[in-house]
Request: fold
Amino acid sequence: MGITRSDLFTDKQNEFAQLAKVFGHPARLAILEFILKSNSCICGDLVEELGLAQSTISQHLKELKNAGIIKGNIEGASVCYCINEEKWYEMKLIFNELFDRYPNSKDCC
Amino acid sequence: MGITRSDLFTDKQNEFAQLAKVFGHPARLAILEFILKSNSCICGDLVEELGLAQSTISQHLKELKNAGIIKGNIEGASVCYCINEEKWYEMKLIFNELFDRYPNSKDCC
DNA sequence: ACTATTCATCGTAATATTGCAATATAAAGT
DNA sequence: ACTTTATATTGCAATATTACGATGAATAGT
Reply:
């Protein structure tokens, strides 16, 4: 039904999924990679860089910001976005906590 | 329009997003965690464990399998699923490649 | 052969996501 | 004040995802 049964899962699972979902779109990855590359911050160069409409980019930025992955600083008429350091490390930790849970032992079915 | 403009992004970005999307649902995380915990393999205990309909679980398993994260072995009437070791390490690598790209330097806007 | 069990697939309904144009807001320059 | 520039928000339309019941296929036990 398009609706996720969040009630069936733990908070951790729901939060993890929410985070992973942000990575689940190439535009948002491209935005992140652009920010990582430009090192310093950015605003709406993304529009010409990515080839998506301005409103679409803005929407993706909003989701990245809501997830806490980036933060934006108003800088005159424009907004400068950059990685949110704390969240970035938290994510790295959370994902690796999952990745490192395998393998416990070896053989399988 | 609900359709992703994959043509605008690199293969790597599209593939990464595709992978991340699989983690973007708590049911699939719960399935993975159950497999990780049970260490050995599983089949349809997931249905009673998670509380979702059998067809729903099956669908999620299919997506996990399509992404290559798990693999299934037919075992009589039932199917035993387990982590796909290679893919698991590949994912760990890919995600950490991204995570480790920050920080290059320090100050931001 | 018949039945029960296990899983996959199909069809469908409800909701979410993606994308864009149009419009709104807000600061900066003139 | 007026215009330009930069970004956010709103209102769609198209497509994707999630979930379930019903049905199908395959094996195991009787």
